[in-house]
Write a structure and sequence with these properties.
Keywords: Disulfide bond, Immunity, Innate immunity, Signal. By secondary structure, the protein is mainly beta. The chain contains one helix and 14 strands, in the order αββββββββββββββ. The strands form four sheets. The chain has a five-stranded mixed β-sheet, covered by helices on one side. The protein binds 2-acetamido-2-deoxy-beta-D-glucopyranose (NAG) (3 copies).
């Protein structure tokens, strides 16, 4: 399989290729928050563990605007395919800027290329990007009068950065009773209610309160609210 850095190296002479691993992180244009230098070509090759997918977004974006972003740009590749190219200024809501775009990769790999031409003239301050990873968990809709739902991989430890939505829908008149089995084990904190991981019950109708739980004992779970 072609690696991001290698594929990109074929497209142009790459000055810097940075390997980025981990569940989340950030990176920015050279010299950020100061204006970026001329003639830069830099790539970030991000990889999360297999089975995760990546989300990428920009908290700052200020690149020289140009038609089709041909001069200065940030380009995002997913598995070596050209996906999106951005330029311009976020603050001015330029058409080519990412604005509130959140890029979600189908796989655990994503590459970002930054290019500047010979004429920044010290005006544009570049970009800052953040990425997070998560294990995709399809929304599960349960409509049978009884059923089972669990965290991914249960009873094995659940993967980090996972958000699952299980929706139980029964005909009107039914009440829903959730019965938890052992082991029940969700990371908790002795003082702060469920700051890391939690199970949140959101009743669709307002006659019942939202419930937030974590902890490792069914009989004494740490209650969030
Ligand atoms: C990043 O580099 C690693 C090691 O060279 C490679 O295995 C991986 O496929 C690359 N990532 C992308 C997005 O191509
Ligand atoms: C990349 O492009 C090729 C050819 O267009 C396509 O077969 C492949 O599925 C694409 N990969 C992704 C991850 O979009
Ligand atoms: C969970 O999924 C259901 C069904 O798609 C949707 O109506 C609900 O808004 C989702 N809840 C959350 C918290 O995302």
């Amino acid at each position: 399989m072609a690696s991001g850095c290698h594929v990109l190296a074929l497209l142009a002479v790459l000055h810097v290729c940075v390997e980025v691993t981990g569940l989340y992180g950030s990176f920015s244009s050279p010299g950020f928050p100061h204006p970026y230098p001329d003639n830069q070509l830099q790539a970030w090759n991000i990889s999360a563990p297999v089975g995760h997918r990546l989300k990428l977004y920009f908290t700052h974006f200020s690149l020289e605007p140009s038609d089709q972003c041909e001069y200065d740009y940030v380009q995002v590749f997913v598995e070596g395919n050209e996906t999106l190219r951005f330029c311009g200024e976020q603050e001015k809501s330029d058409e080519g800027s990412p604005r509130n775009t959140v890029i979600i990769s189908a796989t655990n790999l994503l590459s970002v290329v930054f290019k500047s031409d010979f004429s920044n003239e010290e005006r544009f301050t570049g970009f800052q990007a953040f990425y997070t990873s998560e294990v995709p968990c399809e929304t599960q809709i349960l409509t049978d009068p009884s059923g089972v739902l669990s965290s991914p991989g249960y009873p094995n430890p659940y993967p980090p950065m996972t958000k699952c939505n299980h929706t139980i829908t029964l005909p009107e008149g039914f009440r829903i009773l959730l019965d938890f089995s052992e082991p029940f084990d969700i990371e908790s904190h002795p003082e702060v209610p469920c700051p890391y991981d939690l199970l949140r019950g959101l009743p669709a109708q307002s006659f019942s309160d939202e419930v937030i739980v974590c902890g490792n004992s069914l009989w004494d779970p740490t209650s969030g609210h």
